[in-house]
Amino acid sequence: MPATGPIDAPVLRSGTRHDLTIKKCADQQGGKVMRYGYDTMMCWEDRYLSLIDNGHVLATTSLAARQSRAVAARSAHGTVVVHGLGLGIFLRHVITLPEVSRVFAVDADWNVLSLNEDGVRGKCGGDKVEFIHGHPIDLTRGTLATKYGHLDTVDFLYVDTWSPDYDMGYHRVQEVRDAVEGLFPFVTWFHGQEIAMVDWMRNHRSPPLWDLSRMSLDHFDEWCIHVGMTLGHRSNAYLDHAKTCWSVQRTRRDHDAFRSVGKTRKPGPRWYARSMYVNCEGRTRTDEVWMYAASEHVARCLACRVLEDDFGMAKLLDMRLEVMG
């Protein structure tokens, strides 16, 4: 699976449309913001847009959002069902692909549906799209065929729901299974599935696979059998991509927690590692497992080299000896 860049951000203006607010994020420096990507560590990116409903962020056009959908988009072909439209990053991209002949765009929110319908009207590939108010759980291949004409198969399903706290773990698999049940797509993807796969291998597989360097294609096959779907590309390149995504998002979450605690007190590295790997995950582990997890975490922090700056991020220095001592 060759490397691929992020999907282009759709051209949108700030303002209120269909009772939804589209707003640019706060400027940090010269029209740029410093953020984690989905598979890249913290970097500067252009100010991105957020879709807000009653104070809740439903979607963004951030680099992370566009990176997370790029690999999946390369597998889209034939008849495509997209559930969860947001600001239309994935939808606006796949309708332009020559391999895609038909798209069913599904969302449970009328306002989001209307926003995207307005966005693709008159655009390249816009005539391929049928907009449906509802949820894939309520859809079957038969009902789509009855309402929208002859339909032999659903070739590609993408469950594009998103959580503002990046809660993209293994628990989301059941949601995807429900969406698949009546459609029987040839290919299924969902937003954050790389993180879900690694989460399963580390926390739900028996025995757990703590050392990700040992992850192999046999483990990938085991994952696909467990979920009953082929989620991703069966290649070592995809496994490397999944490990990178998981590591970046775990580091981002750890840094957010560290900054939050640092507002009231300055925790030491031993507390930091133990809290992230034991307390926050709600289980007690053996000293050997904890030591491995702590050293792994420190290695990620060192690779990131986030230093204290104007944004109040904690200064992370070489803590390996202190943590392991």
Short description:
By secondary structure, the protein is an alpha/beta fold. The chain has helices at 63-73, 89-94, 110-120, 141-148, 173-180, 193-203, 217-227, 236-262, 269-279, 287-304, 320-324, and strands at 15-17, 20-24, 32-35, 43-46, 49-53, 56-60, 78-83, 100-107, 129-133, 156-159, 187-190.
Outline the structure in words.
The protein folds into 3 domains: 50 residues, no CATH class; 174 residues, Rossmann fold (3-Layer(aba) Sandwich), CATH 3.40.50.150; 59 residues, no CATH class. The chain is of the alpha/beta class. It has 11 helices and 11 strands. The C terminus is likely disordered. It has a 5-stranded parallel sheet. Strands 1-2-5-6 form a 4-stranded antiparallel sheet, covered by helices on one side. Helix 9 packs across helix 10.
